[in-house]
Design a protein that fits this description.
54% helix, 985 residues, Four Helix Bundle (Hemerythrin (Met), subunit A), four-stranded mixed sheet, disordered C terminus, Beta Polymerase, domain 2, alpha+beta, five-stranded antiparallel sheet, ACT-like_dom_sf, transferase, Bifunctional uridylyltransferase/uridylyl-removing enzyme, NT_sf, phosphoric diester hydrolase activity, Hypothetical protein af1432
Length: 985
C-alpha cells in the first residue's frame, strides 16, 4: 500500500485487497542458508564448550531476529500491508525456532538420529498458529511429546525455552502429549481454541497430524453450538470491559469492539462450526458473499497494519491506540490534512469505519449461523424450537413478522418492492418493542443502495423517522441500530459525513456520531423522568417544552457540521434550515432548531467562563436568548451535550453553574429582576446575619455581622455566612493568624476548603500553587476580603473519594498543605517541582497560547481571557504574573476542556479602574503568553515563601472602608463573587 495511494483514501473499501500468504516474498526477511551456515560454524567451533557455544548461538539468533524485524518494518512502511507484515514476522519466527530446534537436537543432545515416533513436535498455537504475529506479541507454542517420551525431550524443550527468553521473546508454552491435549480441550474452552489453530513449525509432523485428526473427531464433532455460545459470551464480556462501544477515541485495536479479536472470533467459529481451513471457504458455503469476504480481508489487513505500527513505534505489545501515537501512525500511513480535518482525524475516521465494517460482518455471520443451526436441529428439538420461536403476525404490518421477539422479514424482497420499508422496519420494531433478527439486518445491509434522493424526500419515510427520533420508548437504541446498519448515514447524508469522525483532543471521548446518539439518549432519559437526581432542573423543564420535536432534532444534529473548515455551530444551523423542512417541521420549528444549533455552546461557555454575579453577563446572555422557551430548550440541550461528551465530564458543580445562569436569566426575561438597589439588599442581608447569630454575644453579633462587604453578603447563602462567622470567631479565640476548614458536597461531587489568612496581593497565586502541589483540581472558588483586612477564601476542588470520611481526610491534608505553604513551612516552588519531577511535557497536543482582553463584557471590569495547554501549576503562575502587572483580580473562572484550559479573569488596576491603555494591553498579552509557553521559571522563583513567615500584617483600609489588597472601591473587594479554578490547569 504505497504512501501516495493511502493519502487519498476516504473510505476503507478503497484499500487494495490483502495479499495471500503464498503471494508474499519472504526472501528479504532472512537469508536462511547463511544463518544455517553460521550456526553450523558455531557448533563446530565450540563443540566441547557448551557455554561459549550457547552465547554465540544466542548472539547469532538475536542479530538475525533484529535484522529480520527491521526489514519487516521497512517493508510495512513501503507497502502498508498489515497482514503481510504479520506474516513476515511469523515466518521469521518459524525459521528461528526451526533452526534452534535442529541445533539443540543435533549439537546439544545428539538426538537427531532418533526415529520420528520418538521425536517431539513444536507447534504454533493461537494467533501465531494462523501464521500472523505482531512485533511485540507473545509467542504461543505447544511442545507435543510422543506417547513414550525419551529422557532428552523435556531438557531439550527447556533449553529452547530459555534461549528464546534470553532473546527477549515472551513465550507462552505448554508441554503435553496428544492424549493430554484432547483431555484438557474437553474441559477448557481456551485450550480448545488454541489447539483449533495448531500449526506445525518443526519436528515430528505425525504428532501434529494425529492431534488434528483426534481433535476434529473427538472434540469438534457435534459441539459447534456449545463453542459458538462460549465464544460469543466471551466476546460480549470483552466488549463490556472495553466500554461496549467501538467509538472510543483511544480504541483497543486488539480487544476493543470492532477490533482484531472480533475478526478472530468469527474465524474461530467458522473454522470450528463449518470445519473450514481458510476463511475464503466461507464464500463457497454461502455464509459470506464475495464482496463481504473481501471486506473481511481488507478490514483484517488494515487493523494489522495499525497494530504492527503501534508495536514498532512503542517497542512493546501496545494495543491501545493512544493519542500520543495516533499522529505518527497517520503520518506513516500517508494521511494528509484536508480542509476541516487533520491527517490524524482522517486516519481515525478510517479506523472507526473499519471497526463498523467488522460489526456488519459479525451481524451477517451470526445470521448465517442461526439459519444453519436451525436447519440442523434433530426432529423433536426442531419442533420444540419452532413452538418456542414461532413466527407471529405484527398487527398493522404485512411486510414484517415477529420471530421470537425479533422483527423479521415476511419475504426477502420487501425492501426492493418498497424502499420506505427500510425506515418502516425500524419504526415497527420501536412501536412493538422488538429486537432485530440478524437475518433481517443482513438483508437490510445488502439493500442500502435503495436509499436514494427519492426516498430521502418521501413524506412517509420522514414522518416515520421523526416518530423514531421522538419516541417515548428508547430512541437511542433504534437510532444506533440504524447507524450500525448504515441506514442513518444514507438517509441523512449530512449525518453520514460525521459517522466515525473523531476529534483529536482529550475532551471528547467518542466519535461525533456516537456523541450525538448518546446526547439523544440523555434527552430521552430526561423526557422519561429519569436521572432527576443528576439534573433536577432539566427534568423539571422538559414537560414545559412546547417544541419537543424541534428539541429532539436539534440534539441529534447539533454537531452534524463537525469536520468542516467553517465554524460547526454556524454551518450546522445552515444545514438544519435545509434538513428540518424535509422532516416536515414548520418554519417556526425550523428556526428554533437552527437557533439551538447555532447557540448550543453558548450557555456552557457563559456558565463556566463568565462571572455570573456580574449583571452585564446576565444581560448579554438574555439578549442572545430573548425568550423563556428558548432558554428552557437551550438549558436541556446543554445538559445533554455535556453529559454525552464522556464519563467524568459532567459533575454536580457544572449543573449548579448552569442552574444559576438559568435562574438569573429567567428572572430577567420574565421581568422579575430585582430593582432594589444593591446597597439596600446588602444591608438587609447583614441584618439577617445579625439575627441568625443568636448564640453570639451582643458585641460579637455586631462585630461578625459587619465584617463583610456587599459582594459577600449578596452572593453567599445565609447558612454559609453563619458557618463562616463561627469559623472566624473560633480562629480569633485561639489567636491564630491562619486557619482552614473543610466540608464535603456529595451531590455536587466537590469538596470545600475555606481559608482564613491575612490578605496579600499574591495570596491567590500561593493558594493555587499549594493545591497544585497537593494534587487538587480547583473547580471554583469564592474569595472575599473582610473589613479587617483578612482574606476569606472558599476553594472548591474535585472530589476524589466516594466515602465522605475518606474525602474529609484528603481535604484536611490539602488544607494543611495550604497552611504550610502560607506560613513558610514548605517552599512552594520546591513542592511543585517535586510533584512535576520526571513528568514528561505533553507533546501530543498543541494549543497555541492566546490572550483576549475586552472592556465590553463587563461594566466595571476588564476581562482577560487566556487559552493554552494545561499543565500542573499553571494557574499559580498566571495569577502571579497578573500580580506582577499590578492587576487586581476580582473574579476568575478556570475551565478545563481535556488538554486545553480557558481561564477568564475579571480585573482592574489598583485604583479599581478598567485597563484601557492599548500599550498596557500589549504588555499584559506578552507577559501572559510567555508564562503560558512555560518561559516563566523566574515567576516561580519570585513566589513568596510564605505570607505569615514574611511577617506581613493584615492590611489597612482605604478611607472609604474598602480593603486595599486587591481593590479600593467599596463596592467591590478582592473578589466579586464565585470563580472556577483548576490548580493543575
Amino acid at each position: 500500500m504505497p504512501k501516495q495511494r493511502l493519502a487519498t483514501i476516504a473510505r476503507p473499501e478503497y484499500i487494495r485487497p490483502a495479499p495471500r500468504r503464498q503471494d508474499i516474498d519472504f526472501s528479504d526477511i532472512l537469508d536462511i542458508a547463511a544463518l544455517k551456515a553460521k550456526v553450523d560454524f558455531i557448533a563446530s567451533a565450540h563443540a566441547e564448550q557448551r557455554d561459549p557455544m550457547r552465547q554465540a548461538l544466542l548472539a547469532a539468533l538475536k542479530d538475525a531476529n533484529a535484522r529480520g524485524r527491521a526489514k519487516a518494518y521497512e517493508l510495512l512502511k513501503e507497502d502498508g500491508g498489515g497482514l503481510a507484515c504479520a506474516a513476515r514476522i511469523s515466518w521469521l519466527q518459524d525459521r528461528l525456532i526451526a533452526i534452534l530446534h535442529d541445533f539443540v537436537l543435533n549439537h546439544v543432545f545428539n538426538a537427531a538420529g532418533m526415529p520420528p515416533s520418538m521425536q517431539i513436535a513444536v507447534a504454533a498455537v493461537g494467533g501465531y498458529g494462523r501464521g500472523t504475529l505482531a512485533p511485540g506479541s507473545d509467542i504461543d507454542l505447544l511442545f507435543l511429546l510422543p506417547a513414550k517420551k525419551l529422557p532428552f525431550c523435556e531438557p531439550a524443550i527447556e533449553y529452547m525455552l530459555y534461549l528464546l527468553w534470553d532473546m527477549g521473546f515472551k513465550v507462552g508454552h505448554a508441554t503435553r502429549t496428544v492424549e493430554e491435549c484432547i483431555r484438557l480441550s474437553e474441559e477448557d474452552m481456551t485450550i480448545r481454541t488454541a489447539i483449533l489453530e495448531a500449526r506445525l513449525i518443526c519436528g515430528c509432523a505425525g504428532l501434529v497430524d494425529d492431534l488434528e485428526a483426534r481433535f476434529d473427531d473427538e472434540i469438534v464433532r457435534n459441539t459447534g453450538p456449545q463453542f459458538i455460545a462460549a465464544k460469543l459470551a466471551e466476546r460480549n464480556e470483552r466488549h463490556r470491559k472495553a466500554g461496549d462501544t467501538r467509538y472510543l477515541v483511544e480504541p483497543n485495536v486488539k480487544e476493543g469492539k470492532g477490533g482484531l479479536r472480533d475478526l478472530h472470533t468469527l474465524f474461530w467459529i467458522a473454522k470450528y462450526y463449518y470445519r473450514v481451513r481458510e476463511s475464503s471457504d466461507l464464500v463457497k458455503l454461502g455464509v459470506l458473499s464475495r464482496s463481504e469476504y473481501h471486506l473481511f480481508r481488507k478490514s483484517d489487513d488494515f487493523l494489522w497494519a495499525v497494530r504492527c505500527h503501534m508495536h514498532f513505534l512503542t517497542g512493546k505489545a501496545e494495543e491501545r491506540l493512544s493519542f500520543d501515537i495516533q499522529r505518527e501512525i497517520a503520518e506513516s500511513l500517508g494521511y494528509q490534512d484536508h480542509p476541516g480535518m487533520t491527517s490524524v482525524e482522517r486516519f481515525m475516521k478510517h479506523y472507526f469505519l473499519v471497526a463498523k465494517n467488522v460489526g456488519d460482518l459479525t451481524r451477517i455471520f451470526c445470521a448465517a449461523l442461526e439459519d444453519q443451526q436451525a436447519k440442523e436441529l434433530p426432529g423433536l428439538s426442531a419442533v420444540i424450537n419452532r413452538f418456542r420461536r414461532r413466527v407471529r403476525k405484527i398487527p398493522g404490518s404485512l411486510e414484517f413478522v415477529d420471530d421470537g421477539g425479533r422483527i423479521a422479514l415476511a419475504s426477502p424482497d420487501i425492501f426492493r418492492r418498497d424502499p420506505v420499508n427500510l425506515i418502516r422496519f425500524f419504526h415497527i420494531a420501536d412501536v412493538n418493542g422488538l429486537e432485530f433478527h440478524p437475518a433481517a439486518l443482513k438483508q437490510l445491509t445488502r439493500s442500502l443502495g435503495l436509499i436514494t434522493p427519492a426516498l430521502r424526500e418521501n413524506e412517509e419515510a420522514n414522518r416515520l423517522f421523526i416518530s423514531i427520533l421522538t419516541s417515548r420508548r428508547d430512541p437511542e437504541l433504534v437510532l444506533r441500530r440504524m447507524n450500525e446498519a448504515g441506514v442513518l448515514g444514507r438517509f441523512i447524508p449530512e449525518f453520514g459525513r460525521i459517522v466515525s469522525l473523531m476529534q483529536f483532543n482529550m475532551y471528547h471521548h467518542y466519535t461525533v456520531d456516537e456523541h450525538l446518539l448518546r446526547a439523544v439518549d440523555m434527552l430521552s432519559r430526561i423526557d422519561r423522568g429519569l436521572d432527576q437526581d443528576i439534573h433536577p432542573l432539566a427534568a423539571k423543564l422538559m414537560p414545559q417544552v412546547e417544541e419537543r420535536t424541534a428539541l429532539y432534532v436539534a440534539v441529534l444534529l447539533h454537531d452534524v457540521a463537525k469536520g468542516r473548515p467553517e465554524d460547526h455551530s454556524q454551518a450546522g444551523a445552515r444545514l438544519a434550515r435545509r434538513l428540518a423542512p424535509r422532516f416536515r417541521l414548520t418554519h417556526k420549528q425550523t428556526e428554533t432548531v437552527a437557533w439551538l444549533i447555532e447557540e448550543h455552546l453558548t450557555m456552557s461557555m457563559v456558565a463556566q467562563t463568565r462571572d455570573l454575579n456580574d449583571r452585564k453577563t446576565i444581560l448579554d446572555f438574555a439578549e442572545r436568548v430573548q425568550s423563556l422557551d428558548r432558554l428552557k430548550m437551550l438549558m436541556i440541550l446543554t445538559v445533554c451535550d455535556i453529559r454525552a461528551v464522556g464519563p467524568g465530564v459532567w459533575n454536580g458543580w457544572k449543573g449548579q453553574l448552569l442552574r444559576t445562569l438559568y435562574y438569573e436569566t429567567e428572572l430577567l426575561l420574565s421581568g422579575g429582576f430585582s430593582d432594589v438597589p444593591r446597597k439596600e439588599r446588602a444591608a438587609h442581608a447583614a441584618s439577617l446575619l445579625f439575627d441568625a447569630l443568636e448564640d453570639f454575644s451582643g458585641k460579637d453579633r455586631k462585630t461578625y455581622s459587619r465584617l463583610h462587604y456587599q459582594p459577600y453578603l449578596l452572593s453567599v447563602s445565609l447558612d454559609d455566612q453563619v458557618r463562616h462567622a463561627r469559623f472566624i470567631r473560633e480562629t480569633d479565640k485561639t489567636k491564630r493568624t491562619l486557619a482552614t476548614m473543610v466540608r464535603t458536597h456529595q451531590f455536587h461531587a466537590i469538596t470545600e476548603i475555606t481559608v482564613l489568612a491575612p490578605d496579600h496581593p499574591r495570596l491567590l497565586a500561593i493558594i493555587a500553587g499549594a493545591c497544585a502541589a497537593a494534587g487538587a483540581n480547583i473547580v471554583d472558588a469564592q474569595i472575599f476580603t473582610t473589613s479587617d483586612g483578612r482574606a476569606l477564601d472558599t476553594i472548591l476542588i474535585n472530589r476524589e473519594f466516594t466515602v465522605d470520611d475518606d474525602e474529609t481526610r484528603r481535604a484536611a491534608s490539602i488544607g494543611r498543605m495550604i497552611e504550610d505553604v502560607l506560613s513558610g513551612k514548605k517552599d512552594l516552588p520546591g513542592v511543585i517541582a517535586s510533584r512535576t519531577k520526571g513528568r514528561k511535557r505533553n507533546k501530543t497536543f498543541t494549543v497555541p497560547p492566546a490572550v483576549t482582553i475586552s472592556n465590553s463584557l463587563s461594566n466595571k471590569f476588564t476581562v482577560v481571557e487566556v487559552e493554552c495547554l494545561d499543565r500542573t501549576g499553571l494557574l499559580s503562575e498566571i495569577t502571579a504574573v497578573l500580580a506582577d502587572l499590578s492587576l487586581d483580580i476580582h473574579s476568575a473562572h478556570i475551565t478545563t476542556f481535556g488538554e486545553k484550559v480557558i481561564d477568564t479573569f475579571y480585573v482592574t488596576d489598583l485604583v479599581g479602574a478598567k485597563i484601557t491603555n492599548e500599550t498596557r494591553h500589549g504588555h499584559i498579552t506578552a507577559r501572559l503568553k510567555a508564562v503560558m509557553a512555560e518561559q516563566a521559571d523566574e515567576v516561580r522563583d519570585r513566589m513568596p515563601a510564605g505570607i505569615i513567615a514574611q511577617g506581613i500584617a493584615p492590611l489597612g483600609h482605604s478611607p472609604d472602608g474598602g480593603a486595599t489588597s486587591h481593590a479600593t472601591a467599596p463596592s467591590n473587594t478582592r473578589s466579586a463573587g464565585s470563580r472556577k479554578m483548576k490548580a493543575d490547569g
